[in-house]
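--- STAGE predict ---
source: upstream dedup step, 1 unique chain passed
mode: sequence only
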Amino acid sequence: MTSAGVTISGSTTLSTDGQTITFTPSAPLPNNAQVTASVSGIATTDRVALATQTWAFTTLDSTTTTMTTLFGTETPITLAANDSSSVELGVSFTPSVAGTVTAIRFYKGTGNTGTHTGHLWTSSGQLLATVTFANETATGWQFAALSSPVALTAGTKYVVSYLAPSGQYSVSANYFTSPKTSGPLTAGTTNNGLYIYGTGGGFPVNTSSAANYFVDVSFASATSTTPVAVIPTGTSLFADTSVPTTANWADPGPVQVGVRLTSSVAGSIAAIRFYKGPTNTGTHQVYLWSATGVQLATATAVNETASGWQTVVLAQPIPIVAGTEYWASYYAPFGQYSLDSNGLANPITRGSLSTIANGGAYVYGTGAPTNTSPNNFWVDVIFTP
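--- STAGE serialize ---
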């Protein structure tokens, strides 16, 4: 495999049936570039030699294209349901911007065997795309790219589903009692968590217990060109000149890290900020939580610098109550977060803001960061009384 005359290094594996060759690059492919692939010295399963095969494709421009999934690295509560019937499982979702679906994903638990087929539908049941999953892992998220991207219209509802011929699907009951939003994608609460029983599957129309069956899409949309938000002024736990002892902790993640804090006076949190080292890459999502794990706000970091303090302005300031604990956090998809060991073992105070004893918070996922830590992960807020 080459691009602009330069060989792309990586590893090649052959499927057990001898019909699929998979190339895994050792580093991300070049951005917005033509890549030429070729394979030689191959034969049919009947040992008939084949000519060298060559083809080319162009990678996405990451500066103008954003890739989004609904559920990221989330994992279901029930990995394999006690149901061995053939069933098609789905999720309805609506994009807020125009874009394309490039792939379908689903979470697989032990026992969810057989050939899995993914489908993309309109909300009325018109089939838009079909894909068969190959080279699956034993468990976890499975991914299948569509043969060609399917264009979606902003504000229009769609359904993504997959056929589990042996049942044993993954599920989280009561997941859709509140909407799930990730970037431009939203899975609403009305008649969501879809299924239909049958050997061949089909368009899922039934619902039960607002369940999430962990079916997902990879959605490509144009990167926003909205002007940079004005950074609000206010009180923060750390000065702009404060820097961590370790800019990049050797943890590959993915992980969400945060701070547990209170204010001595009532006011509002207008932004969340975090210190970033040079190897803390990927798309970062910030969160504000109550001390009971209720998500109060979330926003995606944009226009980040290579390192240093990153500030993410919330869509609207979130009021907080004096003397009440809150958690501010951010998701680092590749880990490498900043850290001061035992930096928050004891409370620190700056202005009206204070941390809690053992004021660090973390979770390996995108749910509430319920684990406490004495470490300072260098997450902060901008607070206005």
